[in-house]
Amino acid sequence: QVQLVESGGGLVQAGDSLRLSCIASGRTFGSYAVGWFRQAPGKEREFVAAIDRGFGYTDTNYADSVRGRFTISRDNAKNTVYLQMNSLKPEDTAVYYCAAVRGPMTVRQTYDYWGQGTQVTVSS
């Protein structure tokens, strides 16, 4: 069982930056791929970014809407995955969720473990 806790959300202005953190329980965090998803009011949850399992360099993947602005990274020693969000736009406003799976990363919402989410609000 893996428990995930997101933090770092908040209210910012367009153009600002935020860094979200996803802290996981357990001692084999490096064996899990982690994804970030988001859900805006009235919309379906969508893929944002993912980072593959492993140690050292690991592959990443991004939604087209955030590529070049968001960066996902992991620190397995701290059981933490980060989502650095730069040049935020009002359309980035959503609840952001991290998710983990003991397997390769995927853009699909087939992760086994999910956090409770953290709110990101970007004002224009």
| Average pLDDT figure | 95
Sequence of secondary-structure elements: EEEEEEEEEEE
Tally of helical segments: 0
How would you describe the shape?
Answer: globular
Unreliable stretches (pLDDT < 50, length at least 5) are none
Strand content: over 45%
Distance between the termini: 40 Å
Helix/strand/pairing class, anyone? mainly beta
| Total number of strands | 11
Q: What is the helix fraction of residues, given as a range?
A: under 10%
Largest sheet report: 7 strands, mixed
* Rg on CA atoms, Å: 13 Å
Strands, helices and their partners?
Elements: E1 4-7, E2 10-13, E3 18-24, E4 33-39, E5 46-51, E6 60-62, E7 70-75, E8 80-85, E9 94-101, E10 113-114, E11 118-123
Parallel strand pairs: 2-11
Antiparallel strand pairs: 1-3, 3-8, 4-5, 4-9, 5-6, 7-8, 9-10, 9-11
Key words describing this protein structure:
4-stranded antiparallel β-sheet; 0% helix; 124 residues; mainly beta
Describe what is shown at a glance:
The chain is an all-beta fold and 124 residues long. It is 0% helix and 48% strand. The chain contains no helices and eleven strands.
Describe the 3D structure.
The chain is mainly beta. Helices cover 0% and strands 48% of the residues. The chain contains no helices and eleven strands. It has strands at 4-7, 10-13, 18-24, 33-39, 46-51, 60-62, 70-75, 80-85, 94-101, 113-114, 118-123. The strands form two sheets. Strands 2, 4, 5, 6, 9, 10 and 11 form a seven-stranded mixed β-sheet that branches. β5 (46-51) and β6 form a beta hairpin. The chain is globular, with a radius of gyration of 13 Å. It starts with a strand and ends with a strand.
